[in-house]
Write a structure and sequence with these properties.
The chain has 13 helices and 9 strands. The chain is of the alpha/beta class and 310 residues long. Bound molecules: zinc ion (ZN). The site of zinc ion has 5 residues, from strand 1.
């Protein structure tokens, strides 16, 4: 009887040891690798949840998407079409990133009581315009791009991004001819074709025309009609010297409220260094605005010319 009792105690003790071992195997702290695997599986399930949620509610914001709770249904969907789930999830990750970026870029608010200037980039869009776009976007500031019509169709996607970011597009002729040396019909054609190309690319007809080299006469006045010719007040001559220090010299210490700065996005030294100018203007307290915004808040009649009544 005593022997039987001993066996029973031994079996009982062994049972406790087995239970303790089993418990420690399940405990996440005791087995970090197993725990990590568990977390990995759990995060995968969350991914699938969110991707399926997107498939069923495509119009919801990705940041607001709620995970699904119908586990069995979810498993069936995954088995049925794992490729779709993965591709939707990849799309979502990208969209979420874009959404976060746009939330970081808070909407611009213009304070009319504070100084403002308009940066105007001529002769694009060229490959270098991408760098200018990236710098403007990074600092959440805007400018006006006076584009050449013949370059527009090749870079309409870039133009669209510029407009979406808040920049303005102006008409700078079809092929940069001297408007004073061509016929009235040719001037009209240069302006109309460029208007059409811009409208096709971004859906808006430009409000401002800037003739090549700023040269215009009665012919051009007739062709422009009741729209506005946008001149400038600071000429950096960057197209000529292609020297960034000289470009900055034209602006630093000279810039004032209401200025329109003429600069060229096709000049590499300008596109490469434009961030420095943006930082300088911001530090000096200037708001960077588009031509339309400048005309709205400042009296720039001497620089923005309207021949006919609207
Ligand atoms: Zn030009």
């Amino acid at each position: 009887m005593k022997r039987l009792k001993n066996v029973f105690v031994k079996v009982f003790m062994a049972g406790i040891v087995v239970l303790l071992l089993a418990f420690s195997m399940l405990s996440p702290d005791a087995h970090p690798q197993r725990y990590r695997n568990f977390m990995y599986v759990r995060s995968e399930v969350a991914v699938i949840d969110r991707a399926l949620c997107r498939i069923n509610h495509p119009n919801d914001s990705p940041l607001l998407a709620q995970p699904l709770i119908h586990r069995q249904w979810l498993n069936r969907q995954v088995l049925r079409n794992p490729g779709l789930i993965l591709s939707v999830y990849r799309e979502m990750v990208e969209e979420e990133q874009q959404l976060r970026d746009s939330l970081l870029n808070k909407p611009r608010v213009i304070d009319p009581t504070k100084p403002m200037v308009a940066l105007t980039f001529d002769d694009g869009p060229r490959p270098s315009t991408e760098k200018v776009y990236a710098s403007l976007k990074k600092h959440n500031v805007v400018a006006t791009f006076f584009v050449i019509g013949m370059y527009v169709s090749g870079r309409s996607e870039l133009l669209k991004r510029l407009v979406e970011q808040g920049n303005e597009i102006g008409n700078h002729s079809w092929s940069h001819l001297n408007f004073r040396e061509i016929s009235h019909e040719e001037v009209v054609s240069q302006i109309v074709r460029t208007d059409a190309a811009i409208e096709r690319a971004v859906g808006v007809k430009p409000r401002f025309v800037r003739p090549p080299m700023g040269l215009f006469d009665y012919n051009v006045r007739q062709a422009v009609g009741n729209r506005q010719i946008a001149m400038w007040s600071i000429d950096t001559l960057d197209w000529k010297h292609k020297n960034w220090e000289k470009t900055m010299d034209a602006i630093v210490g000279k810039v004032k409220d209401g200025d329109i700065i003429l600069i060229h996005d096709l000049v590499d030294s300008t596109a490469d260094n434009i961030e420095e100018l943006i930082i300088y203007l911001k530090e000096e307290g200037y708001q960077l605005v588009t031509m339309s915004e400048l005309v709205k808040y400042r009296n720039v009649q001497d620089k923005v010319i309207r021949f006919a009544r609207p």
